[in-house]
Inverse folding.
């Protein structure tokens, strides 16, 4: 079971953590809402829970809870620019289909 | 495909619920838009990765509108249809514009309500419409960058903007189809960007030297409320003047003479600007023009621009004095505006305040970034325990009362939103209507304040003077805009006005209003005392004359009747004089003289009420 990040995603997380001034890393997760069943969680982390899985990155931790990891195994967190828009994107090989906007998905 | 941002712990939004909100710095020279991405405030840049949108609008012959860099380039070729610095005209009347006169190269005519219109090939355009074009471009940029429709925005305005100028800014946003969450004072936004709003208390000086304007604001922060203690500045001093100073040096040094074509002048100014910017990092720069070439050192530059910087420092000292503060009581100094990148400016400001200014946020962007932080909280992306910033009203709001006096309803520096009510009454017997005159300012007399609106409350049931209860409510919403309502309590008749600010305020009035109120405090007090006595005298005259006419001859001996009439006549003659003490004395004398008459009237009234009644009619319980 593994998660990874693209170099530009790492760079942007480092930048945001620095400007936020606190936090040990970011959490990737999955919750059951949305028009297509599941949606992604992407949050700053101040304290790591005992059950969390931790993947070390350059200068911060990539954190995921064990239940979410089942859905996210093999996912790469990327950072993309589309025209003027920019943001993070989950490249998740487990996804069967997602809603048109990509904010929620189905396995 | 929606791209994700990092949320605070536990606050990941459900799909499709993240609300998009931006902060907009609608500037005189340049405008910007910013938002919060993954908790970091960032400007949203155009396709060429430039954050600054020049606040220049060109109406093209084919009906199209060009905004920004391209319009700025076209300005020289199409001066009548290319409008810059339109912010200076926001909320102003045609009279104010005439006083700006020669500075404006446009053809201007008066529209409805004295709103000035600029005649372009696309028709006559108001400042509000032109600003809306700038906002529209920023909104489009933001929607492209955020991938969705904007829920709302916070737009910044100078701290000294009055109601009319704020309303005009809101109108422009509405025209651009933007939902304004709040208007925020520019210096307050800068303080928010630096996170100073998280402090418990503090005094902050914001030194804002832009392209064409200089503003200094002194803010006091106390538990999340920013109060503007004083503002000052120079609306015609900025980085452009530095460029002119350097260009003039170049003209003299290269012996270029005085008859220069606009093209050459433009080239010289561009070169001056480039040299100025180069000297921020280097100690000297080579200036070349035609066959002329010379070295411009930082020391030389400083001699050229020091007189201009000195002017800003003078304004700072004056503003500090207005705020009643010494430099030692300033906790933080923030630098805003591109011109504060110049090392000389930083050095001089540091010297004046004896304190290192905050400079680590880009001075061009800091206001927009602060606005973005506020917008994110106001739109509801942050948990409710996040501090909600409050603003205050800059000038007191009040109502005209008898004698041309101002009754302040909401005091200056009250936090908004706020609603306050006060009761008023009628002055004459049987009065059925009341004119309400809403004014803004710190002075005691209406003539020294700014008139905002007039309206009438009609159909008041006829009553004796002083019997009607008329409740007047002043309500200021979160943007500092005012609505006033008046209601007569017994009948419920009601009248309301939303203040459509009367355009037409001359420049000096806004800036000097506060100063005047301090300078004239003593005179105002005397004047108020006099007017109050005059009004009291009129009231006494009115009441006594009515009473004498009703039953004076029946109740009084001819001698008493004549004496009272004579006293009344005396008061009538002197009540328009200027000696408030004398009027007061005359009122007291007349009151003493009429004491007996008043007692007799009372007896007669009771006698009349009791006549024909038997004791059993009075219920002892």
């Amino acid at each position: 079971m593994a998660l990874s990040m693209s170099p530009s995603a790492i760079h942007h997380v480092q930048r945001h953590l620095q400007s936020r001034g606190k936090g040990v890393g970011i959490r990737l997760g999955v919750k059951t809402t949305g028009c297509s069943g599941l949606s992604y969680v992407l949050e700053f982390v101040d304290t790591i829970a005992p059950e969390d899985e931790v993947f070390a990155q350059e200068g911060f931790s990539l954190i995921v809870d064990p239940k979410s990891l089942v859905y996210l195994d093999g996912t790469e967190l990327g950072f993309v620019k589309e025209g003027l828009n920019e943001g993070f994107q989950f490249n998740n090989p487990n996804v069967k289909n997602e809603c048109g906007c990509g904010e929620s998905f189905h396995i | 495909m929606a791209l994700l941002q990092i949320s605070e712990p536990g606050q990941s939004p459900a799909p499709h619920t993240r609300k998009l909100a931006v902060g907009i710095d609608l500037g005189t020279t340049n405008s910007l838009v910013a938002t919060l991405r993954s908790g970091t405030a960032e400007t949203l840049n155009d396709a060429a990765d430039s954050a600054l949108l020049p606040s220049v609008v060109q109406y093209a012959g084919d009906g199209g509108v060009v905004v920004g860099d391209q319009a700025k380039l076209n300005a020289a070729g199409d001066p009548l249809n290319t409008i810059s610095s339109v912010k200076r005209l926001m909320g102003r009347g045609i009279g104010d514009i005439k006083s700006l006169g020669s500075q404006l190269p446009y053809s201007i005519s008066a529209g409805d309500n004295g709103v000035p219109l600029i005649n372009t090939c696309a028709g006559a355009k108001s400042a509000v419409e032109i600003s809306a074009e700038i906002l529209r471009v920023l909104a489009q940029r933001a929607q492209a960058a955020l991938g969705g429709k904007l829920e709302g925005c916070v737009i910044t305005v100078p701290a000294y903007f009055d109601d009319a100028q704020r309303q005009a800014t809101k109108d422009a946003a509405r025209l651009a189809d933007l939902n304004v969450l709040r208007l925020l004072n520019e210096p307050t936004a800068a303080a928010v960007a630096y996170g100073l709003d998280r402090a418990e208390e503090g005094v902050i000086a914001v030194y804002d030297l832009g392209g064409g304007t200089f503003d200094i604001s002194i803010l006091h922060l106390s538990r999340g409320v920013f109060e503007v203690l004083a503002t000052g500045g120079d609306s015609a001093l900025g980085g452009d003047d530095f460029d002119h100073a350097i260009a003039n040096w170049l003209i003299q040094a290269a012996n270029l003479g005085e008859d220069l074509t606009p093209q050459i002048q433009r080239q010289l100014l561009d070169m001056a600007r480039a040299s100025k910017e180069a000297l921020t990092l280097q100690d000297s720069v080579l200036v070349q023009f035609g066959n002329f070439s010379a070295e411009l050192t930082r020391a030389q530059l400083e001699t050229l621009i020091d007189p201009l910087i000195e002017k800003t420092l003078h304004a700072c000292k004056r503003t500090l004095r207005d705020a009643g503060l010494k430099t030692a009581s300033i906790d933080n100094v923030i630098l805003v505006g591109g011109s504060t990148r110049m090392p000389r400016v930083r050095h001089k400001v540091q010297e004046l305040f004896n304190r290192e200014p905050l400079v680590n946020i880009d001075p061009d962007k800091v206001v927009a970034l602060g606005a973005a932080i506020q917008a994110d909280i106001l739109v509801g992306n942050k948990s409710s325990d996040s501090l909600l910033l409050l603003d205050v009203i800059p000038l007191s709001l009040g109502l005209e009362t008898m004698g041309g006096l101002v009754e302040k309803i909401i005091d200056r520096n009250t936090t908004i939103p706020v609603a306050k009510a006060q009761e008023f009454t009628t002055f004459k017997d049987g009065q059925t209507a009341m004119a309400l005159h809403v004014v803004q300012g710190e002075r005691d007399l209406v003539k020294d304040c700014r008139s905002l609106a007039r309206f009438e409350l009609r159909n008041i049931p006829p009553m004796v003077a002083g019997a009607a209860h008329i409740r007047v409510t002043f309500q200021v919403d979160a943007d500092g805009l005012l609505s006033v309502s008046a209601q007569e309590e017994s009948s419920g008749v009601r009248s309301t006005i939303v203040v459509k600010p009367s355009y037409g305020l001359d420049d000096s009035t806004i800036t000097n209003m506060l100063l005047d109120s301090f300078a004239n405090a003593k005179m105002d007090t005397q004047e108020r005392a006099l007017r109050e006595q005059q009004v009291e005298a009129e009231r006494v005259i009115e009441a006594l004359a009515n009473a004498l006419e009703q039953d004076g001859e029946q109740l009084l001996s001819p001698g008493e009747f004549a004496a009272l009439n004579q006293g009344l006549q005396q008061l009538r003659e002197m009540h328009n004089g200027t000696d408030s003490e004398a009027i007061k004395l005359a009122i007291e004398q007349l009151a003493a003289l009429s004491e007996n008459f008043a007692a007799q009237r009372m007896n007669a009234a009771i006698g009349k009420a009791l006549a024909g009644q038997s004791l059993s009619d009075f219920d002892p319980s």
